[in-house]
Amino acid sequence: MQSTTDIVKPAGFDLILFGGTGDLAWRKLMPALFQAFRHGTLPEGGRIIGVARDALSDEQYRSLIESRFRDVDGSKQPSPTEFSRFAAMLHYVRMDLSKPEDYQALAQSLAQREAATVVMYVATAPALFTTVVEQLAAAGLNTPRTRIVLEKPLGHDLPSNRAINAAVGRAFAERQIFRIDHYLGKPAVQNLFALRFGNALFEPLWRRETIANIQITIAEDLGVEKRGQFYDSTGALRDMVQNHALQLLCAIAMEPPINSHADAIRDEKLKVLRSLKAWTPETLAQHVVRGQYSAGNRSGKSVPGYLQEAGVPAGSGTETYVALRTEIENWRWAGVPFYIRTGKRLAAREAHIVVNFRPAPHPIFKAPIGAANKLVINLQPRDGLELHLLAEGQAQRVAAPSGSNITQTLAPVQLDLDFDKRFGSERVGAYERLLLDVIDGRLNLFVRSDEQEEAWQWVQPILEHWQAGQMPPRPYAAGTWGPSAASAMIARDGHCWSEEA
Ligand code: NAP
Description:
- By secondary structure, the chain is of the alpha/beta class.
- It folds into two domains: 9-179, NAD(P)-binding Rossmann-like Domain (Rossmann fold); 184-500, Dihydrodipicolinate Reductase, domain 2 (2-Layer Sandwich), CATH 3.30.360.
- Helices cover 34% and strands 20% of the residues.
- It has a nine-stranded mixed sheet, with helices on both faces. A six-stranded parallel sheet has the order 3-2-1-4-5-6, sandwiched between helices. Strands 9-10 form a two-stranded antiparallel sheet.
- α6 packs antiparallel against α14 and α10 (262-275) packs parallel to α14.
- Catalyzes the oxidation of glucose 6-phosphate to 6-phosphogluconolactone.
């Protein structure tokens, strides 16, 4: 008879990577798993099982990954010894995810041992998401120990998002579903939460009385590269605004959560999304700018326009740029404009949030026109905080108008906190953090279905407006900051984009 001491408790994890030979797996997921392994944070006794349709042995899969690691940044490359230790965790299962019978092969592979946690990471074509969850359930692979990770995009509009979430919800409980928005894993976003909810300094200032406007910019200097075909069916609104930009907006505008539990945080983000000003025909026309890059240059070299990129259909009306203005209708933010803009082939690769404070109410110093305090939260390429103040740099005496007490001129200066310099550039990257959170079952940085649906609900009128042919994209030259209409939109409020200040 088996004694209680003989009973083997499930241990370790199995991470099944559907799309194990895809771009995301090579460029992000495998390097992130390796970094976690190197940092000693990946729980021991785990298996990472790549899944795709190619016929590969475990050894061939390991060799493929080793060859791909040669493209990774220098310090992140494994030594041969490190790789051979990491490779012991790697396995491969050949499967066609559209074939129900293939899920039995996966079930058999997983039955070889009982892992404490089974993570199903769906990093494959979005068209397969529903099939995958349904077939996992049909094969009995949706056990309480299983967590499912879904990559973006979850749908291409509100109805398709609801359909996918309904299908996932039939197979898995919400606590088992990890919807990735990798922006939430970025260290700068963690620091935004820390800044707001770990420090009391800014909270009294974080409101309509002191803040003039908030700008969220996610700018890329690259074009669509080899992903023209994929991008053309998506566009900037779906690719960046519905998910990443709105999650940043939530992080900046949400109320302090009652604690750090996942649902407390997600409840507050949901309230922000529900408070976004509803679109009207007037605001759709005046507060949204849609653009598409034309030929221009990048770093002094000529680059083609979007319509000349490989895979982009002739005459495509897909946007590569969006700028919009919205408001959050609650007591804290009423009347404060929030501007979001994102685009490809812009003047620089940078992502930041700029909180522009109101100017001093009664100036007694001379200062550059429009100068005021601002807080800049940099997300990329640097990760840090800048606090812009006005100071008397040179005690410069100016000719004061007769009868005036103004004798000093102030100049902008900034306090600059570079988190890479402060904490070292070997900090945990977004995918590394998110993968560890899935394995540990922490949902804080993942998007709940109601949040995601609310975000789609808010962008749906914009999509419909465009689908009705109401707003063909405006051309902008590659290497610029987008269509001039975006500057005109913000100028109507008496503000300007950060680089125009
Ligand atoms: P990808 O390069 O096209 O890779 C797709 C993967 O899925 C390949 O491993 C492919 O292998 C596998 N696959 C396709 N059909 C299959 C089937 N019927 N059965 C089994 N495996 C199948 O795509 P990706 O760029 O990695 O993107 C994957 C997902 O992540 C997508 O949802 C994408 O939107 C999302 N995402 C990607 C990025 C990125 O930077 N790449 C960023 C954010 C989100 P075989 O064809 O060999 O079977």
